[in-house]
Design brief:
Elements (H helix, E strand, L loop, with lengths): L2 H21 L26 E4 L7 H15 L3 E4 L6 H13 L4 E4 L8 H10 L1 E5 L11 E3 L2 H15 L4 E7 L5 H14 L4 E8 L4 H14 L5 E4 L4 H11 L7 E5 L3 H9 L4 E4 L2 H18 L1 H5 L6 E3 L3 E3 L4 H12 L1
Parallel strand pairs: 1-2, 1-3, 3-4, 4-5, 5-11, 6-7, 6-8, 8-9, 9-10
Antiparallel strand pairs: 10-12
Length: about 350
């Protein structure tokens, strides 16, 4: 067969094959959510961009990071972890604005000052699927909150404080900033749980995530109130700061301590009896669940939105840790971090 005829024949054959393929109803497949690419209504070849923005650079977030990494391996996606180094609202706002302008499909954030940040959060929500964790911003247009019911967590710690001060007493409270939703709700829970128990909060001090100030605040208040019975720390790093201050002043056993979260310094202080109790959250679940929901919202669209609970809240729960169960808790914590 001449070359030109052979070429014409092959062209006709190829056209016929294409026609058969089209007639059989074949279609291209859109990658599933687990593939880590954008799904319905998006460029199916575009990798999903997800970001997890904390409220500071505390050790606490290493546990959340372990949850993120677990989901990344399961779903074959990448979640960018961002931490405002000084825990300042302006730093977090800048991070959020940068991520939004860079085309992130979904962003999860622990809001530092929820009420003040509503305009920024709403701007982010207009461009990305926005959820909150750890510290909620209920007045914003966020789709979902994942984390502790901080009011109930505060009540849990308040109940422990009542046990520690059965005859009542004086206490002081320490935190990074009371403007954060988690701090305000925890304090409200403590106040409600100790109401009518002859327990008085004589002072509240903020440290703006300055670790040195977190310790000096405790020392100042203990020195100023010779009849102080107990100190309470609302944020994770407040526990180690409180323990260091009590030991430095020789007040172990004289000033009791009740705190939140599971930093190594806190757990060590529970073992040594400097801190009586801590109420721990489940930061591993903050990381894992936030990653999962961001991914699904970014790839499944309306189907994922319809799966959000009516309350728009997923409560990850708390646990009370003291000398009786601290060893078992540390063992479990080490397993989660692997």
């Amino acid at each position: 067969m001449p070359r030109t005829s052979r070429f014409h024949f092959l062209s006709l054959l190829l056209a016929a094959c294409c026609g058969l393929a089209l007639g059989s109803g074949c279609k291209s497949e859109t990658p599933s959510a687990g593939s880590g690419v954008a799904g319905t209504g998006a460029d199916s070849t575009k990798p999903v961009k997800l970001a997890f923005v904390t409220n500071n650079a505390s050790e606490f977030w290493k546990i959340a990071a372990a949850g993120i990494r677990k989901y990344e391996k399961e779903a074959k996606v990448q979640v960018d972890l961002k931490m405002p180094p000084n825990g300042a609202t302006e730093e977090q706002n800048q991070l959020l604005e940068n991520l939004s302008s860079q085309g992130y499909d979904a962003i999860a954030v622990s809001a530092i000052a929820p009420s003040d940040q509503v305009p920024v959060l709403d701007q982010v929500a207009a461009k990305s699927k926005l959820i909150t964790f750890d510290s909620d911003a209920p007045n914003s247009k966020r789709l979902l909150y994942i984390g502790t019911n901080n009011y109930e967590a505060g009540k849990a710690l308040g109940a422990e404080i009542v046990k520690l001060l059965p005859s009542g007493g004086k206490m002081a409270v320490f935190v990074g900033t009371l403007s954060a939703d988690n701090a305000a709700q925890r304090l409200k829970g403590i106040v409600d749980a100790t109401a009518g128990k002859n327990i008085e909060i004589v002072d509240k001090r903020e440290d703006n995530t300055d670790r040195a100030k977190a310790r000096s605040n405790v020392e100042d208040i203990i020195n100023a109130h010779s009849d102080l019975n107990l100190v309470a720390g609302l944020w994770s790093y407040n526990g180690p700061a409180i323990a260091a201050a009590i030991e430095a002043l020789g007040k172990k056993g004289k000033v009791l301590a009740a705190v939140f979260d599971e930093e190594e310094g806190t757990l060590s202080a529970i073992k040594s009896g400097v801190i009586a109790v801590t109420v721990v959250q489940k930061p591993f679940q903050f990381g894992y669940q936030s990653s999962k929901w961001m991914h699904e919202l970014a790839t499944k669209g309306d189907a994922a939105k319809q799966a959000i609970p009516a309350s728009h809240i997923i409560d990850t729960g708390v646990e009370v840790i003291n000398q009786a169960n601290v060893d078992a808790f540390q063992k479990n914590l080490a397993e989660m971090k692997k």
